[in-house]
Fold:
Amino acid sequence: MKWFRNWSPRRQRAGRAASRRTAPQLTQLEPRQMLTVTYHGGALLTNVEVEALYYGSEWYDDPTDYSQTGQLDAFLKSIVNSPYMDALSNAGYGVGRGSFTRGTIYEANLNPYYFLDDSTIRSTIQAEIDNGWLQPPDSNRLYVVFVEPGVAVSDGTASSLSNFLGYHGAFAGYDASGNPASIRYAVIPYPGAATSYHYADNLPTMDSITAVTSHELAEGVTDPDVNYRQLGWYDDTLNGEIGDITEGQSAAYATLNGYVVQLVADQNDNILQLTQGGPGGSSVILVVLDDGDLYQCDASGAHYLVSGVRSASLTYTPSGSLVYEVVFENGAWYQCDATGAHYVTGGVESASLTYTPSGSPVYEVVFNNGAWYQFDGSGAHYVTSGVESASLTYTPSGSPVFEVVFDNGAWYQFDGSGAHYVTGGVESASLSYTASGSPVFEVAFDGGSLYQYDAAGAHYLAGGVWYASVA
Structure:
């Protein structure tokens, strides 16, 4: 990170003596073992653009099936912008978070006594592109075809009755203007009669669908051109992709944001666990020491960034990029991202950024006089006074939760049910959620002790800390 310079000397705070620079300690990563999943040079969908095609008139005519199209669209929108994609990035697969386009229903009258063949599915995808019902193919586009209930799918000599619960592939097609294009897609038969009543890990119907879809999504972005062109990430020893390696292992199924997903393999064929935080993997903590030195702490250790800092926070954009909000001792607030450091305003005590579930930025800014303002797309909104720091987090279900520390050191949590006093003697408090939906708090106390609180209890992290935040 080269967007920082040293700023003015740190102003001493009452009750705190300046300390020498001491990097917070953090457990190191275990040594990497022999890699078995290797990159073969093929294409990757680095930031997937996922779009569903609901194949069959039952998706429209049957009220239950129609409601499920909304559920599956919501799932796709969630998973491409979630720790599931972060885990793939953290594993070194060269892909990150993506985007979502609302799906469309293709109202074909399908006969459940006949197979829906892969060649027909390909022809339909091409026709829907030509007619403008599907977005044009590009280097990140992935079409996910959900076949209506009761219709089995065939692909060559294989079929959903006996060989697969889903698959993905690619073929040479055209965009809407007739230009040659590679078209990547996944096919998900509806579990039940179409799969001889086989379900992923014996899960309920919708859970099985989301689990299989996550499997094909992970493979579709890391090896989109299997059986078409050059392989991407593939295990030659096991002759499989990263979803195939963990398929059928009960430990490989997890719940993420209310949806069941299949955890795929890392490059060592181990189950790739979901972790809190963004594309860096486990949580990233920003720590401001008593002497004003700012450190970034992650699984690889503590990394010095800059001096003369009053407070700092970081978050991930919907596309997975890191954004820092840094307030220096002179009250100058800078936003720092991949393009550099950008001055915002002065007279600030603390500033934090989060994104709403729909992807809109929201800032919580506390000024030197203790006035807390919220800034969003509609403008600046005064909240209250007498505040030291404030931050906003959204629960896995999308509800806002505020962590607010007042000038007297009292820490309150505000949510839909009101204001809840937590404890006193606090300098800063921030909240994040693990991929499984469990809350994790980073709390810096007046004495300089930094603690992390999670379901397992309170964990001392470091001393001599003035301010801390987590992403």
User: Anything to note?
Assistant: Residues 205-222 form the longest helix (18 residues).
